[in-house]
Amino acid sequence: MSAAGYELEAEPEQADVVVVNTCGFIDSAKEESIEAILRAVRLKAGGRARSVVVAGCLSQRYSAELEREIPEVDAFVGVGRAAELPNAIERALAGSRVIDSRPPGMSWPQNGGRIRSTPPWMAYLKVADGCDNRCSYCAIPDIRGGFRSRPPELVLAEAERMAAEGVLEVNLVGQDITRYGEDIDGWSLARLVRELAKIDGLRWIRLLYCYPTRITDELIELVAAEHKVCKYLDIPFQHGDDRMLAAMNRRGSRREYLELVRKIRDACPDAALRTSLIVGIPGEGRREFENLLSFIKEIEFDRIGAFKYSAEDGTPAAEMPDQVAQRTAGHRYDRLMQLAQKISTERNRRMLGRELDVLVESPSSGRSYREAPEVDGTVALVGGAARPGEMVRAKVVQAVVYDLVAELV
Ligand code: SF4
Description:
The protein folds into 3 domains: 12-99, Methylthiotransferase, N-terminal domain (Rossmann fold), CATH 3.40.50; 122-349, pyruvate-formate lyase- activating enzyme (Alpha-Beta Horseshoe); 355-408, CATH 2.40.50.140. The protein contains 11 helices and 17 strands. The chain has helices spanning 27-45, 57-69, 85-93, 140-144, 152-164, 189-197, 217-225, 242-247, 254-267, 286-299, 326-349; strands at 17-22, 51-56, 75-76, 98-99, 122-126, 128-129, 148-149, 169-173, 204-207, 229-234, 272-279, 303-308, 355-362, 365-367, 379-382, 391-399, 404-408. Helix 10 runs parallel beside helix 11. The longest helix is centred in the C-terminal third of the chain and has 24 residues, at 326-349. Bound molecules: iron/sulfur cluster. Iron/sulfur cluster binds at residues 131, 133-135, 138, 140-141, 175-176.
């Protein structure tokens, strides 16, 4: 955008053009996005902003409805169209209404110059976009298009820039990062991670969103052996009952998932495991839910993100019989979270007395390899002051449900 002559403002109130980058994934995200659009529209009505542009997933998915319902918006652009924003803004400022309802853009911006909103010491690094998995409850493949790896030279160049700017921790993201390289000769996630580990300055490389059946032995060995790779795997298993996994169109079975976790823990006993699970998928009866609880007990996840199923427009699951009542899903969610908290507390207690590297994020707290940013707990630091952005050693002296307390050494 700066190449096109625009400057970024810190607050929408100061901008001539407000671009709302939206999410269209689940109901709560859609509501949040619409609220942000309406706030921008109010700025325009009050004479502060000259133009409002809506971009991203919600715009991709519902441009026709939004165009009708919110006529004050000047331009709608979809997914993968960042490079075309300046043109859409020019046309909107010149008085045209821009509606771009093409399928998601599949190309990658070449210059990679991104404004990061994360603290200077950590960043998310996108390695792929789109998804071909077609889980029955998920609208993402329709919104973001099919899977494609971001070319390795772009990923590595961005990581080099991040390291040069002082980023210590990169979190690899994409809808399915374990598929990385399938569409590029000679590349795989393991190879990409090995290349990233060679970059001076990067201290932690964290793998988020790994599809369970695509975690290779090579990748497990790499997590175990490469000191820059956090011994942390985020594997969204989604359920632990085979009938439900089939209904969700997830590959793999409970038995295979247990075997995978056994392999990970054999190779890397300190590995912290995070998963996401959905309760209330259509057809989930008492037995299937109890199977999910026993799966959690058997694996003893360090971290669990749980979600109540929500029927998404256009997905096969939304049309399935035996939809689970909201109230039932709510009870199941509460029971699952109680169990998750109990296990998380026990897993945290096992860290008592251990010394950890902690990436300091405030004078009194930070994160170790076991805590991913934003979704996991923190490590409270005692026994001295630490500077945000530095890596310190600290000994765990207390463990609570999600967080640890550690003393600086
Ligand atoms: S793997 Fe993730 S993004 Fe892809 S369809 Fe399944 S839930 Fe959606």
